[in-house]
Amino acid sequence: MNYPEFLRTAMVAAHREAGKGHVADYIPALAGAVPDAFGMALATVDGELHGVGNWKEPFSIQSISKLFSLALVLAEGGNALWTRVGREPSGTPFNSLVQLEAERGIPRNPFINAGAVVVTDRLQTLTGDASRSVLGFLRAESGNPGISIDPAVAASEAAHGHRNAALAHFIASHGNLDNTVAVVLEEYFAHCSISASCGDLALAGRFLASHGVRADGTRMLSSTEAKRVNAVLLTCGTYDAAGEFAYRVGLPAKSGVGGGVLAILPGRAALCAWSPALDRAGNSVGAVAAIEAFTTATGLSIF
Amino acid sequence: MNYPEFLRTAMVAAHREAGKGHVADYIPALAGAVPDAFGMALATVDGELHGVGNWKEPFSIQSISKLFSLALVLAEGGNALWTRVGREPSGTPFNSLVQLEAERGIPRNPFINAGAVVVTDRLQTLTGDASRSVLGFLRAESGNPGISIDPAVAASEAAHGHRNAALAHFIASHGNLDNTVAVVLEEYFAHCSISASCGDLALAGRFLASHGVRADGTRMLSSTEAKRVNAVLLTCGTYDAAGEFAYRVGLPAKSGVGGGVLAILPGRAALCAWSPALDRAGNSVGAVAAIEAFTTATGLSIF
Amino acid sequence: MNYPEFLRTAMVAAHREAGKGHVADYIPALAGAVPDAFGMALATVDGELHGVGNWKEPFSIQSISKLFSLALVLAEGGNALWTRVGREPSGTPFNSLVQLEAERGIPRNPFINAGAVVVTDRLQTLTGDASRSVLGFLRAESGNPGISIDPAVAASEAAHGHRNAALAHFIASHGNLDNTVAVVLEEYFAHCSISASCGDLALAGRFLASHGVRADGTRMLSSTEAKRVNAVLLTCGTYDAAGEFAYRVGLPAKSGVGGGVLAILPGRAALCAWSPALDRAGNSVGAVAAIEAFTTATGLSIF
Amino acid sequence: MNYPEFLRTAMVAAHREAGKGHVADYIPALAGAVPDAFGMALATVDGELHGVGNWKEPFSIQSISKLFSLALVLAEGGNALWTRVGREPSGTPFNSLVQLEAERGIPRNPFINAGAVVVTDRLQTLTGDASRSVLGFLRAESGNPGISIDPAVAASEAAHGHRNAALAHFIASHGNLDNTVAVVLEEYFAHCSISASCGDLALAGRFLASHGVRADGTRMLSSTEAKRVNAVLLTCGTYDAAGEFAYRVGLPAKSGVGGGVLAILPGRAALCAWSPALDRAGNSVGAVAAIEAFTTATGLSIF
């Protein structure tokens, strides 16, 4: 396939749409992003790497880190996690607290904030340093030792983190945290505050396209586990717009409020697009438009 | 692929699991089914048809009809439907009324009962006879003119249909029905009461595997539309266990409380399994086990 | 007490406030009311009757009828009702369907629509003609044989009654109706469509001020039962604004979307005010202002 | 009235019922209470004080402190509080988080935990020491300088306070706290951990029976404000069983999970009963039975 050409087509679509969104402003550290900045990169299972736009520029990965923390927990600790967090779509944008209450502190899936808090707790128990293990994985897969946690973003998250603190305390009240709320929140804010580029993330997500095999050829997840993570990404990876994303794009993907979207083409490649302006569900307008244009142009989709 | 062997493997798995479920008993007409009856059929895009067990025995297709009514509406009326029904997973088992109320009479997706009522209303407006058009489609695709609506099941549905009547009146109170509640419910109960076999349904679902092309070679849906229906099936097709089904099986599918599950292998085949005993989410224990065993054995999955 | 003077004070307050509301327009038959029309009447346990404004003009009593149907059921059938309907405040304006679903078809209290449907069903079973028995009670207590059911309002309610039909079918789906949905709805719409004046309603509500004794001296409810109906009125009688009404006014009361409010001064009198313009909770702006001014001026309150 | 005799009648009822409940065990410091311990005291507006059983034995007042913190805030700061907390019943037992989310951090009323957290925050701002001001008020009204905060209970509350921490952080996330979460929780746990006897609490609650006038003859609240606090107590004072309590007992009251219930007879007396075993809604079985028996025997009720 002529990936570079398809990436350029995607970039045109992104530039056309990005103006319709709004940059996340719940923390000052994100509010300064240039709304229509754009980058996109694709890393194939064969080792190709292609990019367009600002594909080498680091941005705040935010919730995309939830994908890596989940994969690390499954790799280290196996299926034990699934007694503590579900894998069903959450349904509505504002109901994480509602569902947590109705479902006794078991978060609906690992990609809503409540679920990622439980995953972080588990990763902390397994590794002793949850955020460092996410960071280490990203550096290893991308070959970029410059990837780092942005301390200003982490501090800003903590300072404006009352809602996540509420979730964590509520989960703790149901006995579903092993570490203290303070430790879990610190680790959670830390791995959400990693800065990485589209190129870095495409490389780091490639193990899900290659059925669980890492860049160095070692197996991280079994083929079945890798498929299953992709399934959870498809049904739960883009907040409460997962149905819409599957409908329009048709790929497993994880989005973050920093404007990044990392999508998987199983057996083929990982694809990361970035543009800071978000839609109402918190997904990047430009990045989603770019990935949709890419799948339309290439005909690639899991459906 | 040696499909017959894989189907036999699947049947073994189904027989092992089916005893764990319970036959639907909300209407007398369904309660008499043999819990561990089993059949399975696969229809490839190339025209092969394989079956095991009681794959030629008709059963009540129930909610599987929602897939066909949706496809017919999209084929006849295009995208206009999507202003009246969403395409997001509904989240929890008992919340259709809750969500309908919060979301002002716009059902969350076309596969929950409320959504299927709206789809039926639209199909009635487009064709003048919603249940007949579903029936006609099934007969044409399967080549089996003996497929019919079971009047005893339809009468039983109507007699025990207070909850669906509540949904329909509530939707009507929001102005989201064009036909009368009585007509829509009659048509809805009728197409849910169609009896067809695994072989019939595999043939009838094959257009979604062949990117929208019917048995006679004519195009029913564009390739993009067919992919999108598959996406909605994956995120919403198995009630509130869609996340779990995607995780375990990894195929777009629609289940019914008659015990049938129709799954799509895009580009390859449609697969229908049937076993009456259900799990708590209303999906057939044996049919799901069979399809999971089939995908594990073949390695086929969209992820 | 100089009741006439206090009533005039109340009328001044009502005229000052009534312009802030909006007449109910969900059915055409109510939408034509003059927004700032006003009447008020007080009937003491000693037999005095006082009125100001248009206190002899009939209006649509709407939900005020729920008070009478409840009292008749308790008088005829005793406490058996309370296994089928609760007596807790419902909490939020839009959640009757939500609560019905969560609480398996047992309405939260007899004054929300769902609860009044169950009360009507019970009254129908006890009397064979629920709306006639409410009508007969009002005529007897007021001595006014001209009180009647407005057929235009009843027809309009039925024509726009999809939401109440949804509630009734949902209750029926939980086995909590003895009569058919059609019969219950007809009786429910009929007794809500009674036209009566402030004077009529003050006389008809007086039994709750006189500890259960009717106009003719016979006992309808025991003293304890009468107190308990007053308690339910206080906590549930003014929709989801019951807390606010208790805070501002401090009397048991039932309101209707026709603009009437019937309040009880236990041991002393019944008080009915009417003004068609409603606030967002569905309570009459002018009538509530009048009753509040009356209690402030007289110092009468149960607290 | 022969109050001593009526109190003895009440005690008999309490002893008959108390065995049906269960002592609160969510914190170790409460779990050790003797389930059927019982005391009851009545303080009239004329200065009489009567008691039966262990009416001089201190117990943990728990949520009864919410009544005093509310009154102090209204006395010090007037109506400004009501923009930050509502006064409607909350509806269901487990929905405080649900409602907080739906209603953007404005608690439904001052007597659910979320509302009391906001009241405590306001009292802290007004007085600089919220728990001390509650303690000082209780000591002054009862004339008992021995009333104190139980540090073991306060520590136990804090150690098991994840759910209250969740509420406080969630409220803070909506900007509805002026002080830090840590300070507000500390003060909240402290005033809930006050130990006082039935006699102390009857005397301390008497200002609500005497229309706002304190033991020393000074006015704390206007007559209207005192009535309004009583109204909020009636509709919201006994958790989600407020409707049931009004129905059975018919008095404004505040309960606590330490087993105490403080009820108001407006214009006449304050009444406090205590027995540790609780019903499912968290109200003392024995104390409620005692107060119900007292109102039945005396005929006293606000209805």
What does this structure look like?
The structure is a homotetramer of 303-residue chains. The first copy, chain A, has 303 residues and is an alpha+beta fold. Chain A has one domain (3-298): Beta-lactamase (3-Layer(aba) Sandwich). In chain A, 49% of the residues lie in helices and 12% in strands. Chain A has 13 helices and ten strands. Chain A has helices at 3-17, 28-31, 65-77, 96-102, 113-127, 130-142, 151-159, 162-173, 181-192, 198-209, 223-236, 242-248, 285-298; strands spanning 22-23, 39-44, 49-53, 59-60, 148-149, 194-196, 253-255, 260-265, 269-274, 277-278. In chain A, a hairpin with a 4-residue loop joins strand 2 (39-44) and strand 3. Chain A binds chain B through residues 86-92, 95, 99, 102, 108-109, 224, 226-228, 230-232, 234-236, 240-244, 246-248, 250, 252, 266, 296, 301-303, and chain B through 86-92, 95, 99, 102, 108-109, 224, 226-228, 230-232, 234-236, 240-244, 246-248, 250, 252, 266, 296, 301-303.
